[in-house]
Design a protein that fits this description.
With about 550 residues, this protein is mainly α. It contains 26 helices and no strands.
C-alpha cells in the first residue's frame, strides 16, 4: 500500500512543493522483485524488515512504533473532532448573556475565543476561555466552552474536563454528540458508539422517509437537525468518523463525499475523505487478492500501484501499464458509486480504482491548506520509508518543514528516521521540538525518551517515558524503554516490573535475554533459566523466517 500512497501523492502537490522526478528503478535497499514489492500492497503495515530491532543482546532497544499506528495518526489528521468547533459552543452573545459578562475585558475575551475557534487557533481559544471561566467561576456556559476548547487544544485532561462539564452544554444532544467525538479522538470507539448512535437514531426517527439519507443536494450546512440544535453537518461528520473507526471505510467515504459538497472549503473534510477512500481501496484490494490472486484484475491493480515509481516492475506485472493509471479512464465506476453487489474480481478492481482516484482528488483539495500540506508530506515520507528509501523519506520531511516549520508531525517523522539510523544526536532536537508542538502524542514522547535513554540521559528519558505512559498506559514499547532507563538509574525492581510487562511487545528474544540477566542478578536462577529458554526459542523462530 505504500506504493499506492506514493503513486497518489506523487501527483498531489503539497502547498508550495516542487515536483520531484520519479525514479525509474528501485532505489538502493528497496524492493527489486515482484513478490517483495507487492508486500506493500493491500495493507498499511510495513514489512517485518522495516520494524526490525537491533539484535545485540546487551544493547537491544525497543523497535519502531508500528507503521500502522504512525500512518493512522497521519491519515486522520489531528483528531476526529468536527471541523466546526463553534457548532458545539455557546455563542459569544449567549455566553455574555448567560454569564452576565459586564466588563469590557470579559466580553473581549469571549469574542476573542470565538474568533480563535473559527481560525482554528485552539490553544489561544483555550487561554481566552480560561480567563472567562476564572472571572466567572459559577457560569456553566463558560465551563462548557472551556471544555470544548480543551478538547480541540488536546489538553491532557480534556476528556475529564469535558465529562465534568457535560451537563453545561447548550443542549443534551449537542453535548452527547461532542462527547462521542471526543471519545473517538481518544481512541474509545465503544464509548463513542454509545453516544453517537443514539444521536443518529434520534435524527433518523424524526425525519421523513425521503429526508432520512441526509441528501447533500438540498441540505444547508448551517441548518439545524431535529436533535436540539445539532447541525446536519455535525451528524454526518460523526457518522463518518464512527464508521471509519469501526472499520467501515465505504460508509465513511459515502458520508464524507456528501459532506464535501456541503463544505467544499473545509480542508479537513477533504483530507478525511482522502483517507477514507484510500482505506476503502485497501479493503477492496485485499479482498481481490483473496478471491482471485492470479486474475488479470488483480495483476492490473497491482501494476498500477507500482508503475509510478517502478515502471519496469509495473510492465512485468501488467504489460501496457503506464504512470497515471489511477486517472479513472473511461469505463471505470464513478468515484461515488456504491457498486458492491457483485463481489467479483472486476467489480473489486473497478471500485478500488475509483476509490484511488477519489483519494487523489481529495488530497489535492486538502493540499491547499498549509496544515494538511504537512500531513501529505508526512504520508509521502512514510511511503518512502516502507519502500526502504530512507534518504527520500528524510528529504520529504525536510522539504515539508521548510514550508511548515511548526508541524509537529513532520518534526516527529524526521526524528523517527534519525532514530532508526541511530543518528541519535540529530533525532533528539527534532523529537523535542515535536513534543513542544504536540504534548499529546505518546509516540513522540516514547521516541524522545528512548533517544534520551540511549544518549545517556536517564532522568530526561524517564520524564518523557512517564509522559508517554501517562497518555497511553498500554504502550508496551514505552514500558520496555522505561525498564532500560530504570536499569541505568540502578532501580532494578522497577526495571524488572516494566520489562516483564513489556514482554509481549517483543518476539526477537532480546527482551527475554535482558530479563534473564536481571533474574540472575537478583539470584532468581529458575526464572533466569526460563527467560533464557524463551529467548533462544524466539531467536530460532526468527532465524527460521529469514
Amino acid at each position: 500500500m505504500a506504493l499506492w500512497v506514493g503513486l497518489i501523492l506523487a501527483k498531489t502537490p503539497a502547498c508550495g512543493a516542487q515536483s520531484q522526478p520519479k525514479p525509474s528503478a528501485p532505489p538502493s535497499g528497496s524492493p527489486s522483485d515482484t513478490s517483495s514489492a507487492l508486500e506493500f500492497l493491500g495493507s498499511y503495515t510495513a514489512p517485518s524488515a522495516v520494524l526490525a530491532t537491533e539484535t545485540s543482546h546487551t544493547s537491544a532497544h525497543p523497535p519502531a512504533p508500528a507503521a500502522a499506528r504512525r500512518l493512522r495518526r497521519i491519515e486522520v489528521g489531528l483528531d476526529t473532532l468536527a471541523p466546526w468547533a463553534w457548532d458545539f459552543t455557546w455563542s459569544a452573545d449567549s455566553l455574555a448573556a448567560t454569564c452576565g459578562l459586564v466588563s469590557q475585558g470579559s466580553r473581549r475575551d469571549a469574542s476573542l475565543a470565538d474568533a480563535d475557534l473559527r481560525a482554528q487557533h485552539f490553544a489561544e481559544a483555550l487561554a481566552d476561555y480560561d480567563r472567562v471561566a476564572a472571572a466567572h467561576a459559577g457560569c456553566t456556559a463558560a465551563a462548557w466552552n472551556r471544555a470544548v476548547g480543551a478538547a480541540y487544544a488536546h489538553s491532557p485532561a480534556a476528556t475529564s474536563t469535558l465529562t465534568n462539564a457535560l451537563a453545561d452544554a447548550p443542549s443534551t444532544a449537542l453535548g452527547s454528540l461532542f462527547m462521542g467525538l471526543a471519545q473517538l479522538s481518544a481512541g474509545d470507539t465503544p464509548g463513542a458508539r454509545l453516544r453517537i448512535v443514539p444521536a443518529l437514531d434520534a435524527s433518523a426517527t424524526t425525519r421523513s422517509a425521503t429526508n432520512a439519507t441526509l441528501d447533500a443536494s438540498r441540505l444547508s450546512s448551517d441548518s439545524e437537525g431535529p436533535s436540539e440544535g445539532v447541525k446536519d453537518r455535525d451528524l454526518i461528520w460523526a457518522r463518518a468518523m464512527l464508521a471509519q473507526a469501526s472499520g467501515e471505510p465505504a460508509q465513511a467515504r459515502q458520508d464524507l463525499e456528501r459532506l464535501s459538497t456541503m463544505e467544499s472549503d473545509s480542508p479537513k473534510v477533504w483530507f478525511a475523505l482522502g483517507g477514507a477512500a484510500l482505506e476503502e481501496a485497501r479493503a477492496d484490494s485485499r479482498r481481490l487478492s483473496e478471491i482471485a490472486p492470479a486474475s488479470e484484475w488483480n495483476r492490473r491493480l497491482q501494476a498500477e500501484g507500482v508503475t509510478a515509481r517502478y515502471p519496469a516492475l509495473g510492465q512485468t506485472l501488467w504489460p501496457g501499464a503506464v504512470p497515471g493509471a489511477t486517472e479513472n479512464p473511461g469505463g471505470t465506476v464513478a468515484p461515488n458509486s456504491d457498486l458492491k453487489a457483485a463481489d467479483s474480481p472486476e467489480s473489486l478492481y473497478q471500485q478500488a480504482h475509483a476509490a484511488l482516484h477519489l483519494c487523489q482528488d481529495a488530497y489535492q483539495h486538502a493540499s491547499q491548506s498549509p496544515r494538511f500540506s504537512a500531513y501529505l508530506h508526512a504520508l509521502k515520507a512514510l511511503a518512502a520509508e516502507q519502500e526502504g528509501d530512507e534518504p527520500a523519506a528524510i528529504r520529504e520531511y525536510q522539504e515539508g518543514l521548510a514550508q511548515n516549520p511548526a508541524s509537529a508531525i513532520l518534526h516527529a517523522g524526521l526524528g523517527h528516521c534519525y532514530r532508526q539510523r541511530l543518528d541519535l544526536e540529530a533525532a533528539e532536537p527534532e523529537l523535542r521540538r515535536a513534543w513542544e508542538l504536540d504534548p499529546s502524542d505518546p509516540l513522540i514522547a516514547f521516541e524522545l525518551g528512548d533517544v534520551c535513554q540511549r544518549l545517556g540521559q536517564p532522568q530526561e528519558a524517564l520524564q518523557s517515558l512517564n509522559q508517554a505512559l501517562g497518555l497511553d498506559p498500554e504502550f508496551l514499547l514505552a514500558r520496555w524503554s522505561r525498564g532500560k532507563t530504570y536499569l541505568a538509574l540502578g532501580d532494578t525492581e522497577r526495571a524488572l516490573a516494566d520489562l516483564e510487562a513489556a514482554a509481549p511487545a517483543d518476539n526477537t528474544g532480546d527482551l527475554q535475554f535482558q530479563l534473564a540477566r536481571i533474574y540472575l542478578k537478583l539470584g532468581r536462577s529458575d526464572l533466569a533459566a526460563q527467560a533464557q529458554k524463551r529467548s533462544e526459542e524466539q531467536r530460532r523462530t526468527v532465524d527460521g523466517r529469514q
